[in-house]
Amino acid sequence: MLRVTRLTDYATVILTVLAARPDMVLSAPELAERAGLEAPTVAKVLKPLAAAGLVAGFRGANGGYRLARPADAISLIEIVEAMEGPLGMTECSTPSGQCGIEHSCGVRANWRRINDVVAEALGNVSLAQMLIPPQHPVRRRIGAQLAPV
What we know:
Blueprint: H1 6-20, H2 28-35, H3 39-51, E1 55-58, E2 64-67, H4 76-84, H5 108-123, H6 127-131
Antiparallel strand pairs: 1-2
C-alpha cells in the first residue's frame, strides 16, 4: 500500500487550520486544539514546515505560526517533500546511485514516469483546495505512458 506518513497527514491538517485563518498567528497549543492533535506532535510537525518555508514562526508573548505564503501558493508536493524528503516511489525513482542494480534494471524508466505523474498530481493540488470539501467524488484519469520494452 502506498501512503504518506502519519506526520505528513498531520502536517496537512495543521496547514489547513492555518489556511482557514490566514490573518491570525496561532500558537502551537492553539493549533493542537483546533487540529485535534497533541501539542508535542504539533511542535514536531511545525519544525520541518518552518524549515521548508511553509510556515512562519513568531516569538514573544503573542508569538505563534501562520502560513508563510497564501494557501493557493502552497502545493501538496511541497508539504509531502517538507515532511518526507524528495518524492521517490521506489529506489528506482531517486537520483542515480541509490540502487545496486540500476545499471541493469529494466523497469527504472517506468518507475520514474510513474513518480513524475504522482509528483505532478500532488503539485496540481493547492492547500487552498484542501479547505474546500468535495461536492461529489471526482475521478480523473491521469495519463501515463510506459516506456517501450
